[in-house]
Amino acid sequence: MFESPTRNHFSIVLERAGAVIAFLLFLEVNELKDVGWEIFTVDYYRSLVQQALYEGRRSALIGLAITVFLIWYIYISIRFWKRTTFYIDGVDFVYERKTMFRASSRLPIQNIAVVNVERSIFERLIGTAKVKIDLNSSRTANSTDFKFVLREQQALQLKQSLMDIKQGLSGVQTTQEEEEEQTQQEPRELVAHFSVAEALRHKLLFLPVIQTLVTLTMLIVLPQFRISGAPTSRNRLLYLLIIAVVGWIGSMITGTLNLGNYKVERDSRMIYITCGVLNRRHYMFEKEKINAVILRRPLLARIFGLTSIDLAVVGFGNERNETTHLSLATDQAQLRQIMQQCVPEFVCAETPRHCHPLGLVWLIVRAALFGAATLLLGVAYRKAYVFALIVFGIGLIGAVLEFLSCDFAKDDSIVRYTGGTFNKQTGFFRYGDIQSMAIRTNPLYRLFGVGRLRFAVLGASAVKNHKTGLFPIAGFDEAAERMVEHEDSILLGKYGSSR
């Protein structure tokens, strides 16, 4: 069906125009920062009308300029849509853009990692869908490589066509009828389902602790200050507080709706994820593309005994820089069940080893340095030492928590580590999936025979780079030797300087 050049659905032009209009509205809202609370009064709009009457010519010119810009942008978008095509040529996927800045890409379908389908509320209303194609590439692991808007049926057919060709190239010689028969014989198994309420719980419990404390402090403390000068300063403060609260609430609602009705299914080869209430998304990837399993336990989630499972998937990326959740916040019983069903091979048999005590010494020194810096910055204030002691106390508590949560283990196939203060996480990595590894030391560390291990896997930025605490170098050497036995791994300079 896609052997001849195919264009995106024309609605992509409307989406681009809508993005520009939203940007212009944002600029207009930003202009209200000096008005603040007055935008909710009748007098503000009365004065706005009077100002427009006095400055009619200037307003007309601005409106004309904006209109001309929108017309030009829509014209460019239509030209871009008309001259951008894609098609399947045998075992290759071809993308062409014949605009002023020409682009042409021919890539083997075998190198496609995942093909996902997403439907926003606008696309669901007009019957379209967005197809996202990600490649086996570390360079573009944090973004979608190709994105097309098609009719829903076309989008599903494109996804199926690419996956069928990819499966045929994998060495499984079956006809399309045989593949359909196998698919019918092996129905998907439901692994987990999370409702909208559980998605809201996940968003609330996984809020960054430091960011939340700073935001609450601003909301509580800033209104207590008496701002001298014109009413503009007070209005600006009120406006910023309103925007902060509305933005936070809007973010929580949007995030909850994006994760609502989160469903995870599997078969013998694939994992299927569907989520979203308004913006419906469908993810599908092979189990063998999973590079790492990350268990996340922020402070609030740990209080309620809940954990989430994140995955690093080869080629999986999107413009929101999200990670792939194998589960939202869940209890330990369901966590073990999901792990057993989907990623049973990501288990480390060795008992975790605790961080070397030298690590705690460094963390305490770091807390003292922060306290000293606070004292120096506030030396002009009589009570500066009080703030310095508070900063040191918080840093000391964080140092102890970070030290107690730090551990490391390895066996013949898996590297496992745990780290983090408030946002605690445990990672499981197969040696063959580690892209690079480096052991970092300095003269003091070498005196005690310890170091830090830094390594990276292919995946989105949130699950790509990892660093352990201080552990014996001998254990790191064993892990490095096992890693270099795999062809895809790269061992960086051992015993480099600590950074």
Structure, explained:
There is one protein chain. By secondary structure, the chain is an alpha+beta fold. The chain has four domains: 11-82, no CATH class; 98-191, PH-domain like (Roll), CATH 2.30.29; 194-262 and 271-342, no CATH class; 353-497, PH-domain like. 45% of the residues lie in helices and 26% in strands. It is built from 15 helices and 23 strands. The chain has helices spanning 11-30, 42-54, 56-82, 121-126, 152-169, 176-185, 196-205, 209-221, 231-259, 299-303, 332-342, 357-377, 384-405, 443-448, 473-484; strands spanning 84-89, 92-97, 103-108, 112-119, 128-135, 146-151, 189-194, 262-266, 270-275, 280-286, 290-298, 307-313, 324-330, 353-354, 407-410, 414-419, 423-430, 434-441, 450-457, 465-467, 471-472, 490-491, 496-497. Strands 6-5-4-10-9-8-7 form a seven-stranded antiparallel sheet, with helices on both faces. The protein has a seven-stranded antiparallel sheet with strand order 13-12-11-17-16-15-14. Strands 18, 19, 20, 21, 22 and 23 form a six-stranded mixed sheet that branches. The radius of gyration is 27 Å and the shape is globular. It starts with 10 loop residues before the first helix and ends with a strand. The model is unreliable at 172-183 and 493-499 (pLDDT under 50).
